[in-house]
């Protein structure tokens, strides 16, 4: 639900803040989710990407967003930790 909400927000920002010609998208950060699961002792070698994305991570949420700003900046890496 959070990823869907962020993608809707990205869509609302297209034109004035985000480049509307770019695929501004948010998704589950599969690699971070895999690392978390392995850190908890779960073997992920036989898990599909979908299984990793759907795995229970308790209170932890791992998402990533790829956006392009309208002539505002060239590179931005934003990690949000709560």
Strand arrangement, largest sheet?
1-2
* Low-confidence regions: none
Silhouette? elongated
Rg on CA atoms, Å: 15 Å
Helix content: 25-40%
Individual helix count: 3
Largest sheet: 2 strands, antiparallel
Following the backbone from N to C, one meets helices and strands in this order, namely HEHHE
Question: Structural class of the secondary elements?
Answer: alpha+beta
Summarize the structure.
The protein has three helices and two strands, in the order H-E-H-H-E.
Explained architecture:
There is one protein chain. The chain is an alpha+beta fold and 82 residues long. Helix content is 34%, strand content 10%. It has 3 helices and 2 strands; from the N terminus they run H-E-H-H-E. A two-stranded antiparallel ribbon has the order 1-2. The two termini are 18 Å apart.
Summarize the helices and strands and which ones pair or pack.
Elements: H1 2-13, E1 25-28, H2 30-39, H3 49-54, E2 63-66
Antiparallel strand pairs: 1-2
Keywords:
two-stranded antiparallel ribbon; 82 residues; 34% helix; alpha+beta; 3 helices
């Amino acid at each position: 639900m959070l990823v869907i909400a962020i993608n809707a927000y990205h869509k609302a920002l297209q034109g004035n803040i985000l480049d509307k010609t770019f695929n501004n998208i948010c998704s589950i950060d599969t690699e971070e989710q895999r690392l978390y699961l392995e850190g908890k002792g779960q073997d992920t070698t036989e898990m599909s990407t979908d299984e990793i994305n759907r795995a229970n991570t308790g209170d932890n949420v791992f998402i990533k967003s790829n956006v392009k700003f309208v002539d505002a900046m060239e590179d931005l890496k934003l990690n949000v930790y709560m």
